[in-house]
Design the sequence.
């Protein structure tokens, strides 16, 4: 691997480059009435969340990673005419905004400079803000809205840069998102990876599904890159078996991976993604939630070879729950795993898991970033020989996503 070339060879190899997103106006759009639709359980104090996020970025930089801000990437991307056309075409759709309003919205956005357009794409637009820029079109959709209703929905979940795209060895999956509030996030990443100068000149595979139009969805919080060609994917409330099979086909056809272990997870909010209940902290150690238990698992391998996903046949071996750790160890090429599960009573464990106690981000083998609020997990990790770099999470933690959720590694060494 050449340093700087997009490549993620493991969960725990030294982190060299990572995409994050600083909380912004999109979080100010959250209200008690809209937060459920936008997938938040609480309202964040945005200024404090920004301060905490700055500390998170400083820790990443101090650990040797170059930190890329998503808004900067988007702003620099939409200076490219083809990229601007791509995002406008996929943002202003008459099926969303109606045939009367969509052309007016698009024309208004086309007239914006790259900074204002980036704010619109991520932060959304209210009717009042629109009417400051143009006359109100003869649109039933717009006439039915109140002055402060949103015409273009914000993307507050961009805070969690892990999910809409995830790098797996020498390629990136731009994912079809399960929830409608997150579908447009994939458009952002597709544009960045296709046209931003940092990525446009690089050589890597890009696996893209576009907006979800079927049951095959995958989100990056469910994908763990074990190293050595192995991948673990959680089949959660957001990632489906159909999505796992499609991802496996693409990885195998590209020669990027040769085995995928799929875990059948509970379909519940508390188990939203695999990395909310299990993350890797060194070459053979996993931090897990006490109530996760053992899950049915499936090892997927390619039968034969082919240059295209449709030419690859999948060999699938299913394992009973008690074989879960053995299946992961075999994929890793190890005799066994070290499973780290802090001992707590059931209520304390549930609270700490809800606060992202298992959502550790490794910046090097045996060195992880966690929230300071998950004290029991942090103490247990230290007792187990893992170095813990704490970051404040009093406000960020209200978003129900920890350090791993808020990071999209683009360059990481093999472990």
Sequence:
């Amino acid at each position: 691997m050449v340093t700087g070339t997009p490549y993620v060879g493991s969960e725990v190899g030294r982190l060299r480059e990572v995409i994050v997103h600083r909380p912004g106006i999109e979080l100010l759009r959250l209200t008690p009435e809209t937060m459920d639709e936008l997938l938040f359980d609480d309202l964040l104090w945005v200024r404090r969340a920004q301060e905490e996020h700055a500390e998170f970025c400083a820790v990443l930089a101090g650990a040797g990673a170059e930190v890329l801000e998503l808004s900067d990437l988007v702003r620099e991307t939409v200076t490219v005419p083809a990229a601007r056309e791509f995002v406008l075409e996929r943002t202003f759709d008459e099926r969303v905004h109606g045939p009367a309003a969509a052309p007016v919205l698009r024309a208004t956005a086309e007239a914006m400079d790259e900074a204002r357009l980036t704010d619109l794409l991520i932060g959304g637009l209210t009717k009042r803000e629109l009417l400051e820029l143009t006359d109100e079109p003869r649109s039933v959709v717009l006439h039915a809205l109140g002055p402060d209703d949103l015409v273009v929905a914000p993307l507050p979940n961009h805070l969690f840069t892990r999910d809409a795209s995830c790098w797996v060895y020498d390629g990136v999956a731009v994912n079809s998102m399960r929830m409608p509030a997150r579908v447009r996030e994939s458009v952002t990443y597709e544009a960045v990876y296709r046209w931003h100068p940092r990525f446009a000149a690089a050589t890597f595979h890009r696996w893209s599904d576009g907006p979800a139009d079927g049951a095959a969805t995958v989100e990056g919080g469910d994908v763990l890159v074990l190293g050595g060609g192995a991948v673990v994917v959680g089949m959660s409330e957001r990632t489906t078996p159909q999505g796992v099979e499609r991802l496996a086909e693409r990885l195998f056809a590209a020669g990027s991976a040769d085995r995928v272990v799929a875990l059948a997870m509970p379909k519940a909010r508390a188990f939203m993604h695999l990395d909310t209940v299990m993350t890797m902290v060194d070459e053979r150690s996993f931090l897990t939630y006490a109530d996760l238990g053992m899950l049915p698992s499936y090892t997927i391998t390619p039968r034969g070879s082919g240059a295209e996903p449709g030419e690859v046949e999948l060999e699938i071996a299913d394992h009973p729950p008690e074989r879960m750790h053995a299946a992961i160890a075999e994929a890793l090429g190890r005799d066994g795993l070290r499973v780290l599960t802090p001992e707590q009573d059931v209520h304390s464990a549930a609270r700490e898991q809800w606060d992202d106690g298992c959502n550790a981000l490794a910046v090097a083998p045996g060195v992880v970033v966690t929230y300071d609020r998950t004290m029991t997990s942090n103490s247990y990790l230290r007792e187990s020989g893992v170095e813990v770099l704490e970051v404040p999470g009093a406000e960020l933690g209200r978003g129900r996503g920890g350090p791993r959720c808020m990071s999209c590694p683009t360059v990481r060494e093999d472990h």
